[in-house]
Amino acid sequence: MASNTLTIIDNRTGKRYEIPIEEGNVIRASLLRQIKTSEDDFGLMSYDPAFTNTASCKSKITYIDGEKGILRYRGYPIEELAENSNYLETAYLLIKGELPDIERYKAWEHNIKTHTMVHENIKRLMDGFRYDAHPMGMLLGTIGALSTFYPDAANIFDPESRRLQTRRLIGKLPTLAAYAYRHMRGLPYVYPDNDLSYTGNFLSMLFKMTEVKYKPNPVLERALDVLFILHADHEQNCSTNAMRSVGSSHVDPYSATAAAVAALYGPLHGGANEAVVRMLMEIGSIKRVPEIIKQVKAGERLLYGFGHRVYKNYDPRAKIVRRLANEVFEVTGKNPLIDIALELERIALQDDYFVSRKLYPNVDFYSGIIYQAMGFPMVMFPVLFAIPRVSGWLAQWNEMVQDPEQKIARPRQVYIGEGLRHYVPIERRPAPAHLEEPVSEAI
Ligand code: CMC
Questions:
Q1: What is the pLDDT of residues 144-196, one digit of tens each?
Q2: How close is the Cα of 386 to the center of ligand 1, in Å?
Q3: Parallel, antiparallel, or unpaired for β 5-10 and 70-73?
Q4: Annotated active-site residue in 269, 339, 351, 403
């Protein structure tokens, strides 16, 4: 009779173990510890560099089926949210678990908007960065600094404090991001305008010049809002794992968010949309597409914006971004890179190399082209990713803090270094035998 257990026979000892298979098709790695060859044996561990097959938490926030190309926040398909919701409502959904009614939405929006300003000292902190500082580095540094402005944030087990820091972070991130951009451009900082929508205010803080009131273009304001919805969460990716892992030490959420921003800064995570735009600029013309595809197939280059660790189908976000691009171009004029991208996609999706490896466009394939058309410099692309992702990070952090199963994140290792050896005074020590580096490199 079928049972929800896994039987393990240890051929070293002949012993047999029954391990329960829990909901979600998982076994508890800690149960492997009972598999020992002797009493003083530590027990079996699983070895999983990069956590490719290890669930670090149970979560109710985001569901992905990579084979079918499905992404849902709290059960709602990403397509329905992109069509009908706005970023602030989606952030509420991620954090609170349900879509708000009208009253709750109004209160939420009001609460976020009353936290859009930052302490004046943040401006001076910003001024301390060099003129050519990367805006993501400025964002990372200033978010970390916020923990010193709000020492009350250390009370992470106080639900009211968690709610307050959540509102502050979502409210202040666009302000910090816009200040970083204005610093880079040598322009005066623009204070938040709370009459505008979340994204409208962000556009105002970025692009307002001498006009008394900035009027965001409604198409671009909505496009940015949709991009924010699409980027709000993506379950246990590198930066979310950083948020949870650093947060598991019970540090305040500003410090944990700074760590998540640092993870997102890396080119393998938040930097791929920039790589796509650089690649398309280098290709330069659709005439070169067949030659580029040949190089990709020969293993000479990557097709940036293609392939995904989880999606083995069209990334559902990429489909929405591709449609959105046309709406944006109606306002900004067409970004000529779109023709190269569409041709690359057309040829790749007919080619056995891509089809057999299940390589489809991911969210980054088209998002950079839109950002560029909207006038954002490439260095701002990861910042535009970080602003909406903060709601996902906070939802995950809130869930972790309240999860009785979570402890400080502390993976095990498999030690492969030297056995015991004893200290020899430096005068009596021979040159290290296995170190081949010359003395000049011994720094
Ligand atoms: N161009 C050409 N070949 C590729 C690509 C690509 N973009 N991606 C994967 N492959 C090939 C890879 O060479 C391998 O071939 P083979 O089996 O012959 O060795 C096969 O496809 C499987 O790839 P993999 O490297 O084992 O897949 P992975 O899950 O480790 O990597 C990835 C996923 C996203 C890092 C990879 O697809 C990639 O480097 N893509 C380009 C960078 C990119 O667009 N990154 C953005 C990801 S979406 C952002 C987000 O959601 O946060």
A1: 999 999 999 999 999 999 999 999 999 999 999 999 999 999 999 999 999 99
A2: 22
A3: unpaired
A4: 269
